[in-house]
Structures are given as structure tokens and as C-alpha cells.
């Protein structure tokens, strides 16, 4: 090692150093933010065939004391790399379950679900299943109302453990969805082994579904795949009626996107729900 050390070329890249420093600063700010409970959940409605709300997706935001409301894309990766995704994810889980408890019991929420995003690192925690069940129990809700959005990257390794964990969650009544389906690298053959309920079409395929024949083909293929496997399919990032109509024509009847609503703070979601046509 000593010889190696002597001969090794040492690069000092000031830009890299700046990145390392910035990451460390972000990590300590995130830790502080967790201590101060500076995170909030916004809820984006998910709409079904008849236009009624079938659920919401909980999306985390950071209410930063200096920068205002910060979008998750600017901190989730760092939270994952630093391990802070564990306490953050736990907070999201407990907060979403508590929120669900406040909605439960209303007639129109019987089939309603809250979807939460689960990072790979969180899912791989040896006690993940216990933590989910505990959050459900403590909130006093039925697990049937909880949906977990998992990503394909989960399937890169330890398939046996992953399948076993998913099985326990599924048996407990939790709904399992694969998020951003189609942008991962995994082979399709794994799908038949997983106790899944839903595939979620990534927004990147929905965006140009009317103008890009490749995106249209991918969207149609995902819908067809879901149908042949007996899974539900939800499209995200639906912004126009034309996109919605295309998806509906090809058999996708669950949507989420700005066409219906952007993610809303809880008070605004309550107003949104009250304004829905009564069924
Ligand atoms: P995602 O799970 O793919 O969530 C969908 C993203 O698309 C959300 O961005 C949402 O606000 C946005 N979106 C929804 N409808 C539309 C639309 O019609 N048009 C456009 N252009 N965008 C739309 P957001 O809230 O910024 O979240 C970004 C990502 O951060 C999420 O992507 C998810 O991967 C991650 N994330 C959010 N909350 C959590 C969380 O609690 N835990 C974890 N692990 N990740 C989270
Ligand atoms: Ca998601
Ligand atoms: Ca995602
Ligand atoms: Ca997505």
C-alpha cells in the first residue's frame, strides 16, 4: 500500500472538493431540519375511471427556514446517501398514516388509498416491514388503505429477501406499486415473481405520448403488460385531456397529474375533496 501510495497520482479537483463540502453542509442542514420538524407532506389526488378520487400520493417538501419550500429532487438523493432517508422516511410513513386516520371512517374514503414513496435503502432496512406495520397499528388504520411505491432498482439484488418482504406486506393488506415503471434497467421476467398490485407509468412517457411514437408504444406496452399480469396501472404526469383520452383508449383508467390537481397542502386537499362532484 505504501508503494502504491508513493506512485499513485493524486488528483486534487477543487470542483470535487466543493461538491463534498456542499454535500456535507446539506447533510447537516437536513439533520437540523429533521430535528426542527421542517418537513411537510403535500398530497396529489389520483383519479379513477369516472373522474372520482381513488387516492392521493404523499410527496415530501422541506420547509426550509431560509430557502422556503424545497422540492424533494434537491434533497432525497443526499438523504439517501447520508442515511437520513431512514428517519425522514419513517416520518413520512407515520405522518401519512396519521393523516389517513383522520380521513378514515368517511364513506367516500372506503376505497381510498394513500401512496407513499419508499427508497431502496429504507426498504432494505431489516426492520422495514415491522416499521410499516407499527405505523399502521399506531395510527389505527387498515393496511388496505396504504400503498407503497417501490422502484425497480430494488430488484437489482437480494431478490429473495425483497420478494419475501413484499409478500409479508401484501398479506397484511398493503398495496404494492412499482413507481416510474419502464425507466429502470431490470428484465421484465422478474415481474411474475413479485406480489404486486400496480404498475405506475412514469411521467417521462406520458409527456409526449401524443407526439412521440416511441413513448406511445412504451405507454401502450406497459398498460398491456399490466393487464396481462392482472395488475392495475396508473399514469403519472397527466397534464392534458388529450393525454388522458389516449391513455383511457388504451386501457389505463387511473391518473395523476396537473390536469386534475398539483400536489396540495393538507388544507387545500380538504377543499379539493369537498368540491368534487358527489357520487
Ligand atoms: P415521483 O414519485 O415520480 O412523483 C411524481 C412527481 O411528479 C412529483 O414531483 C409530482 O409533483 C410531479 N408531478 C405530478 N403531476 C405532474 C404533472 O402533471 N406534470 C409535471 N411536470 N409534474 C408532475 P415531486 O413532488 O417534486 O417529487 C419528485 C420525486 O421525489 C418523486 O418522484 C419521488 O421519487 C421523490 N419523493 C417525493 N416524496 C418522497 C418521499 O416521501 N420519500 C422518497 N423516498 N422519495 C420521495
Ligand atoms: Ca411516486
Ligand atoms: Ca420516483
Ligand atoms: Ca415518476
UniProtKB/TrEMBL annotation:
Where does the EAL domain start and stop, copy by copy?
23-277
Protein name (Swiss-Prot/TrEMBL): GGDEF domain-containing protein
Region of the whole protein represented: 552 to 830 of 832
Amino acid at each position: 500500500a505504501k508503494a502504491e501510495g508513493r506512485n499513485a497520482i493524486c488528483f486534487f479537483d477543487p470542483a470535487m472538493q466543493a461538491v463534498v463540502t456542499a454535500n456535507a453542509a446539506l447533510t447537516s442542514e437536513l439533520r437540523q431540519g429533521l430535528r426542527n420538524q421542517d418537513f411537510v407532506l403535500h398530497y396529489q389526488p389520483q383519479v379513477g375511471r369516472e373522474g372520482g378520487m381513488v387516492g392521493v400520493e404523499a410527496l415530501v417538501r422541506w420547509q426550509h427556514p431560509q430557502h422556503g419550500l424545497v422540492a424533494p429532487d434537491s434533497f432525497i438523493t443526499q438523504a439517501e446517501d447520508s442515511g437520513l432517508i431512514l428517519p425522514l422516511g419513517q416520518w413520512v410513513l407515520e405522518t401519512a398514516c396519521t393523516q389517513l386516520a383522520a380521513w378514515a371512517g368517511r364513506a367516500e374514503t372506503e376505497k381510498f388509498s394513500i401512496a407513499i414513496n419508499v427508497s431502496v435503502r429504507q426498504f432494505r432496512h431489516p426492520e422495514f416491514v415491522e416499521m410499516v406495520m407499527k405505523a399502521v397499528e399506531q395510527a389505527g388504520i387498515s393496511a388496505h388503505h396504504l400503498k407503497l411505491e417501490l422502484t425497480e432498482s430494488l430488484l437489482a439484488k437480494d431478490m429473495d429477501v425483497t420478494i419475501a418482504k413484499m409478500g409479508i406486506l401484501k398479506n397484511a393488506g398493503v398495496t404494492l406499486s412499482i413507481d416510474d415503471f419502464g425507466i429502470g434497467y431490470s428484465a421484465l421476467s422478474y415481474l411474475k415473481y413479485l406480489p404486486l398490485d400496480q404498475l405506475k407509468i412514469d411521467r417521462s412517457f406520458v409527456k409526449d405520448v401524443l407526439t412521440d411514437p416511441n413513448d406511445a408504444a412504451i405507454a401502450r406496452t406497459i398498460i398491456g403488460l399490466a393487464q396481462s399480469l392482472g395488475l392495475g396501472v396508473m399514469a403519472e404526469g397527466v397534464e392534458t385531456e388529450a393525454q388522458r383520452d389516449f391513455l383511457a383508449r388504451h386501457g389505463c383508467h387511473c391518473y395523476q397529474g396537473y390536469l386534475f390537481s398539483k400536489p396540495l397542502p393538507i388544507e387545500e386537499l380538504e377543499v379539493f375533496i369537498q368540491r368534487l362532484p358527489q357520487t
